Amino acid sequence: KQEVTQIPAALSVPEGENLVLNCSFTDSAIYNLQWFRQDPGKGLTSLLLIQSSQREQTSGRLNASLDKSSGRSTLYIAASQPGDSATYLCAVRSGRDMRFGAGTRLTVKP
Amino acid sequence: DTEVTQTPKHLVMGMTNKKSLKCEQHMGHRAMYWYKQKAKKPPELMFVYSYEKLSINESVPSRFSPECPNSSLLNLHLHALQPEDSALYLCASSQGNEAFFGQGTRLTVV
Questions:
Q1: Residue of A77, A84, A85, A99 lying closest to A25 (CA atoms)
Q2: Could you give the count of Cα atoms lying within 13 Å of B32 in the half-sphere of its Cβ?
Q3: CB B66 within 8 A of CB B56
Q4: How far is A77 from chain B (nearest CA, A)?
Q5: Which residues of B touch A93 (CB under 8 A)?
Q6: Contacting A residues, span 19-48, partner chain B, CB-CB under 8 Å
Q7: B66 in A contact zone (CB under 8 Å)
Q8: pLDDT at position A94, please?
Q9: Torsional class of A11: left (φ above 0), alpha (ψ -120 to 50), beta (otherwise)
């Protein structure tokens, strides 16, 4: 069974900093990996999707990388803003199964 | 339209009640999911439907009963729940690639 781990569990940074969130998974036979954002008490908003054959995806200030062989993905956020404060979750898809990490709770201070 | 709609947004029910959660999508996705999320925890997979057939049941107690009446609709029937079943229930859909989530139903069992 796929196990997904996210480090750090929580992160607090001043506005403007660049930061990296980490996601690791135990079974490299994945279909894709997706990064989500979740605001308190709300649903999940898709940020980036990386197919298993891809190495990187970018959207605005976000960049996600995937190293399938080592079971790792990173989410890079450039020039962080207070509006980026949320919990960031990575989800790994293997067939019809999609498993989540515990998330990184990000706080960006003005 | 990349929307997954869940109703109701909030539900309070007694332990002897019977209620249903509803999820709808019109993206033509053939896989639909139910997740349960407790506070400050990641979403936990409950059920997966593929082409309107139940393909994954993560050993969920029988007081939760899923139903997929057609390709756009997914229900979760609730009966004789316990207070520990109080959580955010999330629905998602996908068609091979990106998964889209609804805003969830906040369920409180009293």
A1: A99
A2: 30
A3: no
A4: 21
A5: 94, 99
A6: 32, 34, 36, 41-46
A7: no
A8: 87
A9: beta
pLDDT at B72 over 80: yes
Q: Encoding tokens for residue A83? A: 């509006």
The Cα–Cα gap between B4 and B73 comes to: 10
B97 and A44 in contact by Cβ < 8 A? no
For B2-23, give the DSSP string.
--EEEE-SEEEE-TT-EEEEEE
Report yes or no: B47 at the A interface, CB cutoff 8 Å.
Answer: no
The two three-digit tokens of residue A52, written as one number: 């298993």
Low-confidence winner among A27-31, A45-49, A83-87, B54-58 (lowest mean pLDDT):
B54-58
Q: Given phi > 0 = left and psi -120 to 50 = alpha, else beta, which region is A10?
A: beta
